[in-house]
Amino acid sequence: MTTQAQRSAATRTRLLEATVSCLVQHGYRGTSSAEICRSAGVSRGAQLHHYPTKAELFADAVEHLFARRLGEFAGLLRAAPAGAKRLDAVLDALLELYTSPEHAAWLELVLVARTDPELRAHVAATGLRLEEAAAEVFVEGMGLSSSLPARPIVCTIMAWMDGLAVHTALHDDPAAVASSRAVMRALVAPWVEALP
After folding, report:
1. CA gap 42, 83 in Å, rounded
2. Which of 11, 36, 52 is the last residue of a domain?
3. What confidence tens digit (pLDDT) does each residue in 68-77 have?
């Protein structure tokens, strides 16, 4: 028998999953609360109870997605071989993440947030939490000292990946992606190799 807290958590999860799915399929402007509720199988009242504003729902949905993907990424790092092959595994996993339809939904939210103050507050806070979590996963996964300033390099890689994701959204150009990956590897490898 499920408790009220479990039912509430399940409803939130359905709403978050449905929101991400709708964002991927329809974009921000094409995603209505009615469509999200229909897809999640919940009433509009239930949606408003858990998420009074569209901005809160959208920001939490993307954070939910990225938390899951970050967990997958951490697992991949733990299983990756040591040395240079580990860096290759990291870059490949990041490329898969950043060129996914779900990341395109995140980028769309970021662009909409530029002119929507309420959404911007939520998306900015989510972005900072993801940056910090990604830096921690990177340090642990690469076997680096926790005292090292990993966040600048992680932010640089994430910014590069965002740019590559925008390029990929507009151009089907695997050769350009492969070339860009090779350049990033050449830039990052000396930094990783120099770390104790």
Report:
1. 48
2. 52
3. 777 777 777 7
